[in-house]
Amino acid sequence: MSFNLTLLAQMLAFAAFILFTVKVVWPHMLRAIETRQKTIADGLAAAEQGQRALQTSTRQADDAIRAARDRSADIVGQAEKRAVQMIEEAKVAAKEEGAREKIAARSEIDQEVQRAREQLREQVASLAVAGAEQILRREIDVRAHAELLDRIKRQL
Predict the structure, then answer these.
(1) Pairwise CA distance, residues 78 & 70, whole Å
(2) Contact by Cβ (8 Å): 127, 155
């Protein structure tokens, strides 16, 4: 194999190309690769941080929902207790009102009975006086007295 000048020129050109590539092109490529690696690493870190933030916010949302459910259950329980209490208070108030009305009705009935008795007494007394007057005005006769007493009984 003979080395000629063409082969030597090609070797020198190739060496110059490699030297040029290493000195000029390679640093630009390394910078681009490093920039790309840094961008990818930053993206992965941001994704990881986003994932952690998502987990944290999910946990917080679950806690907030759980707290809201507990609070709503407490509110519903208090409302139910208050409803039962209001029903009991209404029952007690209704019983008291019924007792007051019953007492008032009894009192009114007693007063009406008393008035009726008084009126009856007055009527009986006036009838007795009227009957006595009629008996005294007429002559004393058993038949006449019996008729008069019958009339008085009918009037009573």
Answers:
(1) 12
(2) yes
153 belongs to a structural domain:
no
| Best CA proximity match to 111, nearest among 103, 46, 59 | 103
Q: Is 69 among the domain residues?
A: yes
Answer yes or no: are the C-beta atoms of 151 and 128 closer than 8 Å.
no
Q: What angle do CA 41, 42, 46 make, to 5 degrees?
A: 120
Cα dist. 24→17, 20, 27, 133, 138 in Å? Answer: 10, 6, 6, 158, 165
Count of domains forming the chain: 1
pLDDT digits (tens, 9 = 90+) for 83-133: 999 999 999 999 999 999 999 889 999 898 888 888 887 787 677 767 777
- Which residue do the tokens 């009935």 mark? 109
Residue 140 lies in a domain: no
pTM: 0.44
Buried-state track 85-94, b at ≥16 Cβ within 10 A, e below 16? eeeeeeeeee
